[in-house]
Write a structure and sequence with these properties.
By secondary structure, this protein is of the alpha/beta class. It is about 30% helix and about 25% strand. Strands 2-1-3-10-4 form a five-stranded mixed β-sheet, with helices on both faces. A five-stranded mixed β-sheet has the order 7-6-8-5-9, with helices on both faces. Strands 11-12-13 form a three-stranded antiparallel β-sheet. A hairpin with a 6-residue loop joins strand 12 and strand 13. About 5% of the residues have low confidence.
């Protein structure tokens, strides 16, 4: 007898369907059950407003969570960077699989790298975080660039370059990797140049908190280091009281001595979108063994950044 299919809630975008399809295959392997994709339209998909204008926080997530709570789907897959930092009691973050490359990338005309762009080059991005760091880097390295706010899917954004409207656009490496278009990247941006969004490159698999059996099955896909890293990054974001669209970058990584992992380092940055003012700090601590330890690392760094004036650089803060 064929087992009943698990219903996976996903956004309709090409990227969302690609990453949900990969998760569906993995879940089928660990559960032995078929998985069907249930496509859900979110407010962030239909609104043409800039993310900063519609709030950013949760706009790609709320409809998926509502479907979970109504029992219309069994679990959902999100880009972790889109998740609000507060976790509803009725829902469980059952798995955070191994993270893809967290870096941002440039897709530019004539295969140019960031530092090769001509004077006055126009670079498109919908992210205040990317604008803040690119403009700060340009000011510090004598680059003459203009950051231009854009919206749209990968095809739309790269189309601005192909059509000559923009000289380059900034995208996430992980997204391009998942849809098979990583070869179009002309420059991988070092995290020393642009820190990614908290959780960038990671996926979140969420289900109802009272489905213990499903939580256990999905937990087979969880990667402990990725979970610790993104928990620290998201704790920083929460302690700064900043939303998903705030100009905040964060990245946690492991510091090793040869083959022996010694510590976790957490780096954070906040800046004004024009790049004139930034606060960038880092902290290190023992590799977290629990969510509480990872969250403590994030709060520690946030406290230091707030003491350096970070709150004044973020615009309206999330509450």
């Amino acid at each position: 007898m064929t087992q009943k299919a698990l219903r996976l809630g996903t956004r309709r975008s090409r990227l969302a369907l690609a990453q949900s399809g990969q998760v569906a295959d993995a879940v089928s392997q660990v559960t032995g059950r078929p998985v069907e994709l249930v496509e859900i339209t979110t407010y962030g998909d239909v609104s043409r407003e800039a993310l900063a204008q519609i709030g950013g926080t949760g706009v790609f997530v709320t409809a998926l969570r509502e479907a979970l709570l109504k029992g219309e789907v069994d679990f959902a897959v999100h880009s972790l960077k889109d998740l609000p930092t507060g976790q509803p009691d009725q829902l469980a973050l059952a798995a955070i699989p191994v993270r893809e490359d967290p870096r941002d990338v440039i897709v530019a005309r004539d295969a140019l790298k960031l530092t090769d762009l001509p004077r006055g080059a126009r670079i498109g991005t919908g992210s205040p975080r990317r604008m803040a760091q690119l403009n700060a880097y340009a000011r510090g390295h004598g680059l003459d660039i203009e950051t231009v706010p854009i919206r749209g899917n990968v095809d739309t954004r790269i189309g601005f370059v192909r059509d000559g409207e923009l000289d380059a656009v900034v995208l996430a490496a992980a997204g391009l990797q998942r849809i098979g278009r990583i070869d179009e990247v002309t420059d991988f941006l070092s995290v020393d140049t642009v820190l990614p969004a908290p959780g960038q490159g990671a996926l979140a698999i969420e289900c109802a908190a009272d489905h213990a059996g499903l939580i256990a099955a999905l937990g087979e896909l969880d990667d402990p280091f990725t979970r610790a890293a993104v928990t620290a990054e998201r704790s920083l974001l929460a302690a700064l009281e900043a939303g998903c669209s705030a100009p905040v970058g964060a990245l946690a990584d492991l510091l090793a001595d040869g083959q022996i992992v010694k510590e976790m380092r957490l780096r954070g940055v906040v800046g004004t979108t024009d790049g004139t003012r930034t606060v960038q700090l880092s902290t290190t601590g023992p590799v977290p063994e629990t969510d509480d330890q990872a969250m403590a690392l994030g709060r520690e760094l946030a406290t230091e950044m707030l003491a350096q004036g970070a709150a004044g650089l973020m615009g309206e803060r999330a509450h």
